[in-house]
Amino acid sequence: MPHHVVIEPDSQPSRPSGIAVYPGTFDPVTNGHVDIVKRSLRMFDQVIVALAVNTGKAPLFTLKERVALVEQCFTANSNVIVDTTEGLIVDYAVRQKACAIVRGLRAVSDFDYE
């Protein structure tokens, strides 16, 4: 059974070291995405925001524009890396030596899907 960690809004979880990958299309990046990255930084040394290329979607913004938008959100934080990836996220996470993949949930059905 997978292990899931839920970060409550005002909680201060113990802070393991390591790298976490937060994948998504970020089309566009939202305040919710930014909040998830900030919460993740309370748990991990570094968060890689991995913009996934999904050929099944017609994006509103180009990949280059999405990268720039996400980078603008975290210019003051050197612990956030913005990158792009294609293929399986788990393969990307292994290549980055990540210890966790961060996911946000919009609804209970998202949890079931993940």
Automatic annotation (TrEMBL):
BP GO annotations: coenzyme A biosynthetic process
Keywords: ATP-binding, Coenzyme A biosynthesis, Cytoplasm, Magnesium, Nucleotide-binding, Nucleotidyltransferase, Transferase
Domain Cytidyltransferase-like: 21-113
Broadest EC class assigned to this enzyme: transferase
GO molecular function: ATP binding; pantetheine-phosphate adenylyltransferase activity
Catalytic activity: (R)-4'-phosphopantetheine + ATP + H(+) = 3'-dephospho-CoA + diphosphate
InterPro entries assigned: Cyt_trans-like, PPAT, Rossmann-like_a/b/a_fold
EC number: 2.7.7.3
Domain of life of the organism encoding this protein: Bacteria
Signal peptide: none
Protein name: Pantetheine-phosphate adenylyltransferase
Protein source organism: Candidatus Electrothrix marina
